[in-house]
Amino acid sequence: MNITLINPYELGRQPFGLAEPAALLEQAGCTVSCCDLSIQQLEPCIDSDADVIAIYIAMHTATRIAIEALPEIQKIAPGAKLCVYGLYAPMNAKLFRSLGVQFIIGGEFENGLLEMVEQLRTGQAAGDLAPLIRMENTAFILPDRSKLPALSQYAGLIMPDGTRKTVGFAETTRGCKYFCRHCPVVPVYEGRFFVIPADIVLADIRAQVAAGAEHISFGDPDFFNGPGHAMRIVRAMHDEFPQLSFDATIKIEHIVKYPDKIHELAASGCLFILAAVEAVDDDILLKLDKGHTRADLHTALELMQAAGLALAPTFVAFTPWTTLDNYRELLQHIADLQLIEAVAPVQLSIRLLIPAGSHILKLPGMAAQVGRFDPQLLGHPWRNSDPRVDALQQSVQEWVTQAEADGMSRPDIFQGIYQRAWSDAGSGAPELTLDGTGKPIPRLSENWYCCAEPTCEQLAPFQLTIDCS
Ligand code: SF4
């Protein structure tokens, strides 16, 4: 059986979500090819004789691209059965079925892919795989990355001096044990996470180092969901590759809880930690059920500074509860904490995305505040009760997109955002006094954004015609 696996987009990462099932399906006797639309074009990338085309949708942007690509895929490979798998597959199941997709596999998808192959081989009726969301252990095997474009074609690490390192991507766990209300992981994993065995992770890292990786970016939703497992991998990796640097995503609560481990990460080659700070307003943090407060952010920053580690915070800057005042306060806070160089400007334009099944809809009164699920948006539309806040979000988004395209520095982009946030205050706007913007930190060449609606500009680089009307 010929299978083509497609990755629409995963933040510039060479996807584990293709490389690992590729190995598993080959082991099951299939002939597998891979196509990464963030780098390659559908034609000639996908096999027109494919029996199955399976699209990996790990995030909102990938889902948008998959929807746009499906008619084209059907034209190129009219005989192929279609499958979508990954985090965003089950929450958009109805929509994908209406687009002709027969197999939809969410959660821990590997066994589902194998069952799909078995079903097709034995000629059973297609499309009755169950359950939609799989929460079962996978017998992980070493990913086969040879079918994907080279690591050097993916997102790189930009060092403060402008030099670039080749980045490999690894995952040590999938899912998450927390219930942050806005998070797309929650409706699928509902507080569960699954461990990828350390020997598989280390063998995958070894293969990526051999392929040129100089830095490993750990893509776990939270690296410290299983801190013992994470530290075992870090220690073994550092012993074997002492020059290899890395980054990881760790929630503020865990940074505060594990100061010794933060120091050990720093001593083992960690360059920075991404943390989903999301807001500095304690009321908004409570609504999002983030498990941290503004004071915790300050504690985490102190700990990180003491360890010599950079913090790269991410935000959901625009929510239904955002006011002009608390947005201005967020900007002032970032300036006061000297985080301007550490915050990717796009983070200050991000608008809360409410996908189907989002736990944010469980907040009292929330369901009445948002519109019905919109298949164009792949989410529930909402408006801020103050139209000036929605207008500011648009203005900041346009400014950031243009300023980044023009190659402006983060401090200059920040100044522009600050001016827009105070534009209706006339002469009452305070001067932005910058004691310092913080030191530039190492950063990946593609921004991390997850719980956000992508803009047309973010989608534009893909070789597909995206209807953003
Ligand atoms: S935001 Fe992070 S910590 Fe919270 S549920 Fe999602 S992955 Fe877990």
Which molecules other than protein and nucleic acid are bound?
iron/sulfur cluster
Give the strand content.
15-25%
What is the CA–CA distance across the termini?
Answer: 39 Å
Number of domains: 2
**Helix/strand/pairing class, anyone?**
alpha/beta
Please state how the strands of the largest beta sheet are arranged side by side. 14-13-12-11-8-7-15
Oligomer: single chain
Poorly predicted spans: 460-469
Q: What would you note in describing this structure?
A:
The chain is an alpha/beta fold. It folds into two domains: 2-134, Response regulator (Rossmann fold, 3-Layer(aba) Sandwich), CATH 3.40.50; 150-459, Alpha-Beta Horseshoe (pyruvate-formate lyase- activating enzyme). Helices cover 37% and strands 15% of the residues. The strands form three sheets. Strands 14-13-12-11-8-7-15 form a seven-stranded mixed sheet. A six-stranded parallel sheet has the order 2-1-3-4-5-6, sandwiched between helices. A hairpin with a 5-residue loop joins strand 7 and strand 8 (164-170). Mean pLDDT is 93; it is low at 460-469. Bound molecules: iron/sulfur cluster. Residues 176, 178, 180, 183, 185-186, 221-222, 251, 276 line the site of iron/sulfur cluster (SF4). Iron/sulfur cluster is lined by residues 176, 178, 180, 183, 185-186, 221-222, 251, 276.
Topology:
Layout: E1 2-7, H1 16-27, E2 31-36, H2 42-45, E3 52-56, H3 60-76, E4 81-85, H4 88-91, H5 93-98, E5 103-107, H6 110-121, E6 133-134, E7 156-158, E8 164-170, E9 173-175, H7 186-189, E10 193-195, H8 198-210, E11 215-218, H9 227-240, E12 245-249, H10 252-257, H11 259-267, E13 270-278, H12 282-288, H13 294-307, E14 310-315, H14 324-336, H15 366-369, H16 387-405, H17 410-421, E15 443-444, H18 456-459
Helix pairs in contact: 8-9, 11-13, 14-17, 16-17
Bound molecules: iron/sulfur cluster.
